[in-house]
Amino acid sequence: MPIARISVTLPRDVLAAADRRARELDRSRSWLVAEALRRYLSGGQNAALRDGRVVTEPVAAYAAVAYEVAEARRRHRAAELTLPAAERLRRAEELGRLARQAQRRPRRQQVIGFDSYEDFYQWKKARLVGA
């Protein structure tokens, strides 16, 4: 979605309140302002503006889930920061190793046909000697 930058002048107390709310939701200030504008443009209902049309969404449920996720992330981050730096680094390296492992593709399976059991036996013997 294309974006545009704007400049807005706000009273300090309004900006401080907006920043607090953005932190509570673990969202950016820009997201909060855009969401507020969407709601205002839709007449204050739970709606979003998409392709020039107002689309109704269950924003209250979405905000509740976003708040829960943000709270869980904050708790996890706080717990991680109590660990020594060496332990945090070890965990990060382990996570990277696990991610690389998860991305590996399984071995391809190959179907080989033989005209006779003797051909299969010769092939098997050659594999065992070469291994």
Describe the structure.
It is a single chain. With 131 residues, the chain is mostly helical. It has one domain (12-103). Helix content is 63%, strand content 6%. It has five helices and two strands; from the N terminus they run ααββααα. A two-stranded antiparallel sheet has the order 1-2. Helix 1 packs across helix 2. It starts with 11 loop residues before the first helix and ends with a helix. The model has no long low-confidence stretch (mean pLDDT 80).
* Tally of DSSP β-strands: 2
Estimate the helix proportion, in percent: 55-70%
- The strand order across the widest sheet is 1-2
Task: Please tell me the total number of domains.
Answer: 1
The geometry reads as elongated
Largest sheet: 2 strands, antiparallel
Measured by DSSP, the beta-strand proportion falls in 5-15%
How many helices? The count is 5
How far do the termini sit from each other? 56 Å
Summed over residues and divided by their number, the pLDDT gives a mean of 80
The helix-strand sequence is HHEEHHH
Low-confidence stretches: none
Radius of gyration: 28 Å
Structural class: mainly alpha
Tags for this entry?
elongated; mainly alpha; 131 residues; single chain; 5 helices; two-stranded antiparallel sheet
Q: Layout of helices and strands, plus pairs?
A:
Layout (H helix, E strand, L loop, with lengths): L11 H14 L3 H13 L5 E4 L2 E4 L2 H23 L3 H19 L13 H14 L1
Antiparallel strand pairs: 1-2
Q: What is this structure, in a nutshell?
A:
α1 packs across α2. The protein has one domain.
